[in-house]
User: Fold this.
Amino acid sequence: MLMRALLTADRGAVSRMLVECGVFSGEEIAAALEIFDSGEYALFGADVDGVLAGYVCVARIELTRSTWYVYWLCVDGRWQRRGVATGLMAHAEEYVRAQGGERLVLETSGRADYAGARAFYEKAGFAVVGRIADYYKAGDDCVYYCKVIG
Assistant:
């Protein structure tokens, strides 16, 4: 697995994997692509056998000294449960550490179809630090995670 910075040419593959993973709404996909297009975030991809198998997006949180946010982590369905997400997260942590970052924060849905994502984050060492009921919409809580890496 090769970790690399994403290129503008990767946009189509990123868009496809966001759609095909089946959990993101059209509005969420549009937001992810807007972030991709902005050039203001660190975007890394995992290539497996010459194919973009997943990507991660991180950025320092403004007004903090060393806290970074994981905005997106998505793995193509054909590559899930094969270590791609683990590799991407490890790469993101290494990058953030090299930039002086000391912690990663992320949020995800509390819906049942996000149980696998939450289990992944917890296995990766993230701790639940908060939950807001009905945050995204009725029945869709926001679960906040944090991991100290520095």
